[in-house]
Fold:
Amino acid sequence: MHPSAGPVHGPVHESVGTVRRPDGGTHEVRADGHVIDRGPDHRVTAIRAPGMEAHFAPGGHPDMFHVEHGGVVQTMHRGPGGVRIVEGVRPAFGGGMVRVVAYGGHRGFVERPIMGRPGYMRRSYLVGGRPYAVVFRGYHYRGIAFYRPIPAVIYRPAFYGWAVHPWARPIRIQVGFVSQPWYGVYGTTFAPYPVYASPDQWMTDQMLADNMQQAYDAGRDAQAQQDSAAQDAGYASAAPPPISPELKQQINAQIQTDVQEQGQAALAGADALAPPATSADADEVPDALKPGHTVFRVVAPVNAEVNGQPCTLNSDDWIIRSGDIDPGDGTVPVKVATSRSSDCTQGATTKVALNELMTMQNDQDQQVAILLKKATETMGKDGMPVGPAPGATPVPGGQAQADLSVATDLKQEQGDASAAEQQVVAASTAGGQ
Structure:
């Protein structure tokens, strides 16, 4: 959401009438429950009505909306490059809720409860046209619910140790991403290691490269959609912010921590990693609040506030946790490590909700798991030294098949968002009269 759209202020008990805002715009409360903000040019910048809230870009098109109708909740906001990120939540057959999140036209996930396993849910992801599934278990911390992914496989302790142990000498490994199209566009965003001192450095470059690939694909999606709303709004480029050597070192340190903790968890054995969820579960400290977990990549736009002014932490921004959770509101203090010019200012301090931070943590956990598997397949190739036999062991509680309909569901969600967007535009037109 772009902060320039202006928030809808005021609870429903505001007095009916119109007041002028300090910026020259107006704030109107109507008897029918509609709340309308207009800018100095009299354009509608935000509107709230029963079951609806929306914010508009300077060009007059929605850049965020939240619509509720018949038990279905539909949310949309524009990410970097104007790509449309949509989310739909609706009741699931058999209980619980189904959540569909689409990042543009070719990436996203479908989340649903796992029947017969209370406290567990499955996400079916679509990335690069390939579906895969991840199982999550629910936990609580100080009254806040959060989820943690269950690994699909675990490896022998020696393999985890090898993944973070320096080699006898630095190694030059061929990395295929330098020949990929995104590298010609975003190649200056970060500097790959000229040689690798340990496998975790290779994993760091691979993770950053995967993030760049996703940003490149998102930008292409926005262009392919020929979205007039995005074009008129003048959205910032999808190019990720540059990664400084200092930030890259912090990312690498956190990857080492993630690998070591995954190795430590694997010592408990495959059957112990997915225990039944019960009402007697004690508070579990979220990984995002543990020592060594301080650097996070923003996965999806997050509304934030800096010095009393709204701003956005956008996809591929990086933040650094600077403290512990505030028990009063469940937020965690962070500092903006790197961002685009249109996002929350680099170096600024703000707060994010614990669940938002755990979304970022879980995304990194999955990336590390994928890269560990990739390392098992790369050993002995392209210059990668051969390490100890991984000995992959399936985790029964982490096994799941991706929904066969995940691509169709994501496409349908984008279609539903288009219909909701038309509804929002119609409401803003009527509200502007």
Observations:
- Helices lie at 157-164, 181-186, 199-224, 228-233, 245-266, 354-378, 406-431.
